[in-house]
Write a sequence for this structure.
C-alpha cells in the first residue's frame, strides 16, 4: 500500500510539531522518533513501508509499530494510507505550545495556569505508549554505566540479587525501566529483590511489574514498601487457599490472588467456610471453579455468615422454608436457591466488577 503524509503548503518545509517535542521526546522510543522524522522530511510524497525500512535499516514490522504509535497517541490520523495531522476537536484543551495569549481569550473564560495544567496531565505522564519503546543499545548502556554511578550500581546489584551475570539484554531492559518509565534505582532494586524472593527473575515479568509500578506512581521507597507488602499479602492468601482446597502448590495467577484477597483479607472467611464453598462447588459442578466458589461465598457474606454453625442454621432455615411453602401451596416455588447456585448466577455481577 502507498502512504502519503499530507501537510498541505508545508510539504516542502521540514518542521517538527511542538507536541512531538513537548510530550513525546521523552516517551517515544528511538525507532518511533526516527520514523516520524523521516515522514516529516518526506511530507507530500508517496512512500511505502519498505522505503522507510530501507532508509532507516529497520524491520518493516518495527516501522508499522512506530507509525501506529503516532496514531494511537493522537499526533496523526490515518485512513486508507492517508496520514494527516490529527484533527482539532472543539472543546478540547489546547496544547501548551499553541495556547492563546490572555489578550485573545474570550471574556469570562477561565484560564488554566501552566502549573495546574502540568498537575492535570501528570497521571498520564508515566503510562507507556501502546507501542513498546525501543531498548537503548549496548553502546549507550556502557556509556551510562561509565558516566552514572547509580546506573552502574543498579547493574552490579542486579547480578548480586539474581546470583548470576545478567545479560546485556537484561541490563538494557533495566535501563529502559529507569530512564523511560522513570523508576528510581533504589525502587528498581526493591522490585528486583521482591521478584527474586518469589522466584520470578524472568526479565519479562520484572518489566511488566515495573510498568505497573510506574503507572501507579510507585516512585519512592515508602510507596514501594507498601506495594510489596500488598503483593506479599495477596500471594500468601492465594497459597493459603491452595492448601485449604488441596490444590497442587503453584505460582498463583492474578485472578487467584484477587479471589483470595477478597475471601481472606476483606471478607475474613475461615478455612472451614472456604473449604465448605469449595466442596459445594465440586458437588454441584463436578470440579472446582473459583468464579463459582466466589458466588457462593459472596452470598454467605451478604447473609452475614461468619461460622460453620451459622451456615448450618441458614441451610436448615432455607430447607424448612422451601418445604413449608411447597406444602402450603402444593406447588414448587418459582425459584430455588439451589438452582441459582447450580447455574452459577449468584455473584456473577460481583465477579465482573
Amino acid at each position: 500500500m502507498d502512504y502519503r503524509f499530507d501537510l498541505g503548503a508545508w510539504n516542502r518545509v521540514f518542521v517538527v510539531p511542538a507536541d512531538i517535542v513537548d510530550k513525546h521526546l521523552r516517551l517515544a522510543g528511538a525507532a518511533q522518533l526516527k520514523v516520524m522524522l523521516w515522514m516529516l522530511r518526506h511530507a507530500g510524497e508517496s512512500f511505502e513501508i519498505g522505503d522507510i525500512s530501507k532508509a532507516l535499516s529497520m524491520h518493516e514490522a518495527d516501522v508499522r509499530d512506530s507509525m501506529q504509535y503516532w496514531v494511537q497517541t493522537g499526533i496523526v490520523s490515518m485512513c486508507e494510507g492517508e496520514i494527516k495531522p490529527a484533527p482539532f476537536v472543539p472543546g478540547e484543551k489546547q496544547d501548551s505550545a499553541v495556547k492563546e495569549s490572555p489578550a485573545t481569550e474570550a471574556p469570562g473564560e477561565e484560564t488554566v495556569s501552566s502549573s495546574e495544567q502540568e498537575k492535570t496531565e501528570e497521571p498520564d505522564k508515566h503510562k507507556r505508549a501502546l507501542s513498546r519503546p525501543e531498548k537503548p543499545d549496548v553502546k549507550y548502556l556502557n556509556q551510562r554505566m561509565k558516566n552514572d554511578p547509580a546506573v552502574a550500581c543498579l547493574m552490579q546489584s542486579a547480578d548480586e540479587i539474581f546470583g548470576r551475570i545478567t545479560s546485556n539484554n537484561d541490563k538494557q531492559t533495566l535501563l529502559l525501566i529507569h530512564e523511560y518509565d522513570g523508576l528510581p534505582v533504589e525502587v528498581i532494586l526493591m522490585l528486583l529483590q521482591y521478584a527474586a524472593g518469589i522466584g520470578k527473575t524472568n526479565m519479562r515479568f520484572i518489566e511488566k511489574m515495573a510498568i505497573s509500578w510506574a503507572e501507579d506512581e510507585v516512585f519512592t521507597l515508602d510507596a514501594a514498601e507498601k506495594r510489596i507488602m500488598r503483593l506479599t499479602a495477596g500471594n500468601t492468601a492465594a497459597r493459603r487457599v491452595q492448601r485449604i482446597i488441596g490444590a497442587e502448590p503453584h505460582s498463583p495467577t492474578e485472578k487467584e490472588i484477587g479471589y483470595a484477597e477478597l475471601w481472606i483479607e476483606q471478607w475474613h472467611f475461615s478455612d472451614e467456610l472456604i473449604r465448605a464453598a469449595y466442596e459445594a462447588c465440586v458437588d454441584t459442578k463436578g470440579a472446582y471453579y473459583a468464579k463459582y466458589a466466589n458466588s457462593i461465598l459472596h452470598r454467605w457474606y451478604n447473609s452475614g455468615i461468619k461460622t460453620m454453625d451459622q451456615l448450618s442454621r441458614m441451610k436448615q432455615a432455607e430447607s424448612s422454608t422451601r418445604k413449608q411453602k411447597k406444602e402450603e401451596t402444593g406447588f414448587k416455588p418459582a425459584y430455588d436457591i439451589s438452582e441459582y447456585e447450580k447455574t452459577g448466577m449468584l455473584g456473577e455481577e460481583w465477579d465482573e466488577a
In short: Residues 88-125, 346-353 have pLDDT under 50 and may be disordered. The CA atoms of residues 5 and 39 lie 7 Å apart. The beta strands are 3-5, 46-47, 76-79, 82-85.
